[in-house]
Specification:
There is one protein chain. The chain has helices at 18-21, 33-46, 59-70, 78-81, 131-142, 148-163, 177-180, 199-202, 204-216, and strands spanning 5-7, 84-86, 96-107, 113-123, 128-129, 145-146, 167-176, 191-198. By secondary structure, the protein is an alpha+beta fold. It has a domain at 73-216: GTP cyclohydrolase I, C-terminal domain/NADPH-dependent 7-cyano-7-deazaguanine reductase, N-terminal domain (GTP Cyclohydrolase I, domain 2, 2-Layer Sandwich). The strands form two sheets. The chain has a five-stranded mixed sheet. The chain has a three-stranded antiparallel sheet with strand order 1-2-5. Helix 2 (33-46) crosses helix 3 (59-70) and helix 5 (131-142) packs across helix 6 (148-163). The longest helix is centred in the C-terminal third of the chain and has 16 residues, at 148-163. It starts with a strand and ends with a helix.
Length: 219
């Protein structure tokens, strides 16, 4: 028998949080690509190099193109990522965990990368979402200027509001280059954040089970 696919409920009550229901609105007026490339040339000159030298002539174009890729999360909607669910679950209502989801983001304070892994779990009620969608959801929020704490909370909120599970658990582990390459310069230091909602928040045993499953499979 084929799985029954259902869209997420558009008339959700209470309504979805703003960051869940839609992609962010761009600033108005949005700078043109030419203005963005000019800004890159200004930064090159600011650090002491010549933006007109041969090796740097096409750098502004490449940087702007890279930014469009690295920050594509500003054009993506979390609700659309989780918009298809499967109701043929065999009454499965226990923990679903996707572990070791790699992600790349950028610190909103210094615009320097932080990279790491996300571990995402939820306890479904009646319907489940495709496993790849959880990884895509992490990427939507990661591909924006962020703090790790904010990203952690946003991922948990999106899953909680759209899927309405019995519980949500999200752990992020990341190395921040604003700490490893500058400032205190401590490479290898990891920042760990967690968010527990529903059954995971209310039952310490469920928190322990989640952490044990995350840690137990790591080498």
């Amino acid at each position: 028998m084929d799985a029954i696919v259902k869209p997420w409920p558009k008339g959700t009550t209470p309504p979805l949080s703003e960051h869940v229901r839609a992609a962010p609105q761009p600033v108005a007026p949005r700078p043109s690509r030419e203005e963005a490339e000019s800004a890159v040339r200004t930064l090159i000159a600011y650090i002491g190099d010549d933006p007109a030298r041969e090796g740097l002539l096409d750098t502004p174009k490449r940087v702007v193109g890279a930014y469009e890729e690295l920050y594509r999360g500003y054009r993506e909607c979390p609700a659309e990522v989780l918009d298809r669910t499967f109701s043929e679950t065999g009454k499965y209502d226990d923990l679903v965990l996707v572990r070791d989801i790699t992600f790349n983001s950028a610190c909103e304070h210094h615009m320097m990368p932080f990279t790491g892994r996300a571990h995402v779990a939820y306890m479904p009620v009646d319907r489940v979402v495709g496993l790849s969608k959880l990884a895509r959801l992490v990427d939507v929020y990661a591909r924006r200027l962020q703090t790790q704490e904010h990203m952690n909370a946003q991922v948990a909120t999106a899953i909680e509001e759209i899927l309405k599970p019995r519980g949500v658990a999200v752990m992020l582990e990341a190395e921040h280059t604003c700490m490893s390459l500058r400032g205190v310069e401590k490479p290898g230091s990891l920042t760990v954040t967690t968010q527990f909602r529903g059954a995971f928040r209310d039952d310490p045993n469920e928190q322990l089970r989640f952490i044990t499953l995350v840690r137990g499979g790591q080498r």
